Amino acid sequence: MIPYERQEKIVEILNQKELLRIDELQKYIPEISISTLRRDLKELEKKNKVHLLAGGAVKLISSTTELPISAKTNLQKKEKDYIAQVAAKQINDGDTIYLDSGSTCSALLREIVTKKIHIITTNTDALSLSGDFSCDITLLGGAFNPIISSLSGPLTEENIKKYIFDKAFLGANGIDLKFGITTPDYIEASKKIAVLGQTRVPYLLCDSSKFHKVSTVKAFDLKDVTLISDKSDKKLAKEMKIISK
Asked: Which helix (H) or strand (E) holds 230?
């Protein structure tokens, strides 16, 4: 087999097993020597397809993509509602907060409309709110992405820099020890970085299904935020503060 074929075979095996010792992996493809296998694994690691672990094991890097907001809303709904309730407890009357786009942030939006706060947001789900609520809401301008109900781009970032946020509540698609907090879109990642620069206390809202997952673009490091999730994780907790059950 040529290198490409070997490496595709390795990814195919790890896609089924996810984590294997290198000697165990070699048993599935005995026609490939251990030395060749190690070279292929190093090449795959450079391409961010696998992660070589201490002790001679290898793990497939699970990549995430952006789903439409309509599809994400009902995924892990119980977990997202719990995260929203925990996040709401971090907000005090009088706070000025930034609220990101995403289904978990939308759940938080519904949870906090009765608080006497100022919400600055790029989440266009705010336009669907109706009835009585106590908060003030400012929707920042920018390019509209209907797939994720989000505003972003240079105009959005320019407006973000006019505010100082007491707290920010950000979303993401993956949380990984090596690659940090990731999202599928560079423009969204750039917006999150701009928010971090204007925020006193930043939080990340992510359910546990996103733990040890990687998307296309790195937004920031684990240490930059406090994670609010439905579960804790021993490995992630060594690198960041986690608020959970």
From this structure: none
pLDDT, tens digit, 9 for 90 and up, residues 11-40: 888 877 767 889 889 888 999 899 999 999
- Rounded to two decimals, the pTM is 0.74
Helix-helix angle 77-88:103-112, to 10 degrees: 50
What 8-state DSSP symbol labels residue 193?
Answer: H
Query: How would residue 51 be classed by pLDDT, with cut points 50, 70 and 90?
Result: confident
Phi, psi at 196, each rounded to 5°: -55, -35
Burial call 9-22: b when 16+ CB within 10 Å, e when fewer: bbbebbeeeeebeb
| Reduced 3-state DSSP string for 143-180 | EEECCCCEEECHHHHHHHCCCCEEEEEECCCEEECCCE
> Exposed/middle/buried for 228, CB within 10 Å: 0-12, 13-18, 19+?
buried
Give tens-digit pLDDT for 166-216: 999 999 999 999 999 999 888 999 999 999 999 999 999 999 989 998 888
Residue spans of alpha helices (H) in the chain: 3-17, 22-28, 34-46, 69-72, 77-88, 103-112, 154-160, 186-196, 234-237
Three-state DSSP at 205 gives strand
Neighbours of 53 (CB within 10 A): 12
206 touches 227 (CB < 8 A): yes
